[in-house]
Specification:
Blueprint: E1 2-5, H1 16-25, E2 30-34, H2 42-51, E3 55-60, H3 76-95, E4 100-103, H4 117-138, E5 141-145, H5 158-167, E6 173-178, H6 179-185, H7 189-196, E7 200-205, H8 220-229, E8 235-238, H9 255-273
Parallel strand pairs: 1-8, 2-3, 4-5, 5-6, 6-7, 7-8
């Protein structure tokens, strides 16, 4: 497992150089960038990450309602725009040597169905097929993030996502699970992680209240043991938000609070990796 962090939790005013410095300070080896190719100067970014020996573990799915992106939309123009966006993310992943590109099957924040669930999933499936054709050629893996029902009506659980992938014989596709969303939707966190085993490619980390690990009520020690049990080798990407933060409006975030989360999580993982608290 590689210790990583999602840059999307920082206020947009925080420079990428500052984020990289903080991650290195706390022994992070990976960084998960926003799936926004136009946001970055890729050549400068490559140089910055190389200097600090940081790997881009993934690109985060960016399809919030305000972006106008939606793989399941009834509007063909919207779907085409979204497919093209994710293809751009795949090319960016190639430039940055990142193995994973996250996608969301609907607009993040759309929790209503436009016509029928079947029609929505069929449109999403057609979109995913087109994206995965590009992913195959570029030797990248697309990861579908499972989101809670208050954020999206589709793919709320690992089981739903597994069935979507397997029943449609999707290749170059995996699952990105998020502890915060799982805490809401999964009846048994540990069993869900075990069930996701071979498809789990990325893991977003946050406590039950979406703050850092140790600030809520999740039993991370047991979660970590389960990940070791299934031999998970992907990123542990901290995606914890400041306590005063609306995740759909990342203004006014607390940089120092997120810095504390990064430090705490790094220390927790280091202790667990060293065998402390795992031999009981």
């Amino acid at each position: 497992m590689i210790l990583s962090a999602c840059v999307g939790v920082f206020d947009k005013s925080v420079a990428i150089e500052k984020i990289v410095h903080i991650l290195c300070l706390h022994k992070y080896k990976g960084i998960e960038l926003l799936g926004e190719p136009k946001k970055y100067n890729v050549n400068k970014l490559i140089s910055l990450l190389k200097t600090h020996s940081l790997k881009v573990t993934a690109l985060t799915a960016c399809s919030r309602l305000k972006t106008g992106r939606d793989l399941a939309s009834k509007n063909k123009v919207v779907r085409k725009k979204t497919i093209d966006h994710y293809k751009e993310c795949l090319y960016m992943a190639c430039e940055l040597s990142s193995p994973l590109v996250g996608i969301s099957l609907t607009a993040i924040g759309r929790y209503w169905i436009e016509d029928s669930y079947y029609s929505e999933t069929q449109r999403a499936l057609e979109s995913v097929f087109e994206i995965t054709e590009a992913a195959k050629k570029l030797k990248k893996t697309v990861v579908i993030e499972t989101l809670n029902r208050y954020v999206s009506f589709m793919m709320n659980t690992i089981d739903e996502c597994k069935k979507f992938i397997s029943s449609n014989n999707l290749s170059n596709v995996g699952i990105c699970s998020d502890l915060f969303h799982m805490n809401i939707e999964e009846s048994n966190l540990l069993e869900s992680i075990k069930d996701s085993a071979y498809l789990l490619k990325n893991f977003h980390i946050a406590d039950s209240n979406r703050r850092g690990i140790g600030y809520g009520h999740l039993d991370f020690k047991s979660i970590f043991k389960t990940l070791l049990e299934i031999q998970y080798s992907g990123p542990l990407a901290l995606e914890a938000w400041a306590s005063n933060k609306n995740p759909f409006n990342n203004m006014d975030s607390s940089f120092n609070e997120i810095k504390d989360y990064l430090s705490d999580f790094s220390n927790i993982v280091e202790k667990l990796n060293n065998g402390l608290n795992t031999n009981e």
